[in-house]
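Suppose you are handed a protein chain with no further information: no name, no annotation, nothing but its sequence. What can you learn? This example shows the usual starting point.
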Amino acid sequence: MIANARMYSIDAATGAHWRVLLEWVIARAGIDCDVIDYPPPLPLPSLWKRRDLGCVFMCGYPLMHAQPAPEVLAAVLPRRALLPSQPTYWTDLVVRADSPLFTVTDALGKKLAYTTEDSQSGYQAPRRFFASFARAAQGSLFSTLVGPLITPRNVARAVLARDADIGSLDSYAHDLLRRHEPELAAGLRTVATTAPTPVPPLVAAAGTPRETLLRLREALFAVAAAEELADAREALLIEGFTAVDRADYRVLIDAAHEADRLGYPRLA
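A reasonable first move is to predict its three-dimensional structure. Written in structure tokens, the prediction is:
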């Protein structure tokens, strides 16, 4: 089996801390599993289709479309959650710190950067957010869509390079950028945030034996109290992991359907 934290390995430093944490989880669970590298621009959908997934971060939106459905293990508890001990995140809509744009309405007609269309934070959440604006405007909202840029870090860099005027940035990835690349993050300013939703979970492949799932979940829940993981938790800005269910992510599909109902099937 394999483990991977590509979604939130924003750079080499965070990737190294995720490796330490995942190797600890695997050892505690006592399963045969390897932490693998899977750097961008390798496509995440290909990773998520693998039948040997053991403990891999997966975006909630494609999770709800996947057949057969992967087994949900747990969700991370980011320190900047909407409520304490809640596995939530959202999309920060960011502009350059020196940008003349101060509201999302200022950004209409400008260039919007996104990650990929199957990303909740990088595309689907902004689509729902802007759907009401689009209905009122009865047309396209942006002059150009810049993407797919694959990673939140690339979205941030596109905004800073003036390739885009506004970008969709995963709030937890944004926190990690602030922590590990403060000079880059300091060049950004958040002008709006989308509604909070469940954060991407760690999953195992469909059909993973129940005993393996139980061992992995127990190990993930134990991360919060493990003294030897204190440095990793601090570097990754997490409290630990908590139980979630695939049904918790149904709200993402409901929001996408609402954007469709409002006549905004794609960012435009």
